[in-house]
Amino acid sequence: MSTDQDRSAAAASVQEVTEGVFAYVQPDGSWWINNCGFLDGGDHTVLIDTCSTEARTRALLAASTGTTGSTVTKVINTHHHGDHTHGNYLASDAVVIGHRKTREAMLDAGLDTYEGLFSGSDWGHLELRPPEIVFDDRLTVYAGGHTIELIHPGHAAHTTNDVLVWLPEQRVLFSGDLVFNGGSPFALMGSVAGSRAALDVIRELEPRVIVPGHGPVCDLSQLDPLDAYLAFVQRLAEQGKESGRTPLELAREADLGEFAGWGELERLPANLHRAYAELDGAEWGAEIDLVAASVDMVTYNGGPVRCFN
Prior knowledge:
Shape: globular
Largest sheet: 7 strands, mixed
Order of helices and strands: EEEEHEHEHEEEEEEHEHHHHE
Distance between the termini: 15 Å
Number of helices: 8
Strand order of the largest sheet: 1-2-3-4-5-6-8
Helix content: 25-40%
Structural class: alpha/beta
Strand content: 15-25%
């Protein structure tokens, strides 16, 4: 990760991935610096996710309305994490759509900024706004000439409430955090095994373009490295359980090999906490000790994780 890379809100780019469909890509895609998207519905705009901070979301809204020339009337959330939902309240003319569990998780957690885990954050003013329209399995949204299929994978993966935003006619997928490009996957609040299964759901769709939750726009070729990392976590967890090592001990001793150059390596002990729980028989997405896993991330990192949001 370059230390001099511009990670400000001004560094975001708007990329038209197909006619009237835009990816909003924020470098460098690390903690809290997510991607969004928007669609030109003719007389209105549909936004896919908001951002972690007031400033970033205001920049997103300016870019989207400046590109389409119309007001955002719908916001679709891909899951409940704050880097994808904190800015919902700023789309004041829009209805917010998401999974039923996204709404439940946001109401349960509130505006959680995980103090003590991150340093350097500049949130601005935030207000909690969970989805007002919710669904359980699938929902179809129409925007001008665009058909937007919202698909829950059917199980926990990155979280319990992930939503794939699928444009079947253009074969464009906004994956949320089921896909990372350049950063380590994160399954602490979902499931390691479920994350691998969700990649199979994506493969079955056969998207031409994938807008990941973090990192550059990509295609199906990005799924195999992610799957390999998650399989590595599972194998490592099996070894750790057999030897009686804790997730933190195991992470510190692990040879990351081909994954050593990825971002957010401190996610490894947290992913191992989830993998250990699954080896103990926990259901995908079951509640585990998130505080202990977060403490291990900070310890592995040598202190709070530097955040550039």
